[in-house]
Amino acid sequence: MGFAHFWLSGFDQIRTGFWAYLAVGLENGSLYAMIAVGYTLVYGVLGLINFAHGEVFMCGGFAAVFLTHGILGETVATGWASVGLVLAGIVVAGSISALVATGVEQIAYRPLRRRNAPKLAYLISAIGASYFLQTIAGKEFGYGQNIFPAQVFPAGQTLFFIGKTPIHTIQVVCLVAGAIMFIAADRIVRSTRLGRGIRAVAQDSETSALMGVNIDRTITLTFIIGGSLAGAAGFLYSLQNGIVQNSGTELGIYAFTAAVLGGIGNLRGAALGGLLIGLFGSFSVPFAFEGNISWTEIYTFLILVLVLILRPTGILGEKSGRTA
Amino acid sequence: MSLVTRSALKRLLVSLAVGALVAVMTGAPGGYGVPAYTGVHGSFFEHVSYFGLFRTQRWFLFLTLAVLAWLLLSFYKAHAHVVQRRLEPVTILPSRLMARRTNRWVLIAVVVVVTLFIPKFVHQQFWMYLIVEQIGVWILLALGLNVVVGFAGLLDLGFAAFYAIGAYSTAWFTGVLPTPAPFNHPIPTLWCIPIGVALAMIFGIILGIPTLRLRGDYLAIVTLGFALIIDDFVGTQSGVTGGGEGSLTVPKFDLNAGFFHYRWGISPTPYYYLCFIFVVIFLVAFTALEYSRVGRAWVAIREDEVAAESIGINPLKYKVSAFAVGAASGGFGGVLTAGLIGNINPTLFQYQVSVNVLILVIFGGMGSIWGVAIGAIIVQFVTSYLDNYQPWGYQLNDLYMYIGALLIIMMIFRPAGILPSRRRQREIHDFETAHEGHLDEVLTGDEP
Question: Which of A20, A264, A295, B290 is deepest in the core (most CB within 10 A)?
Answer without folding.
Answer: A264
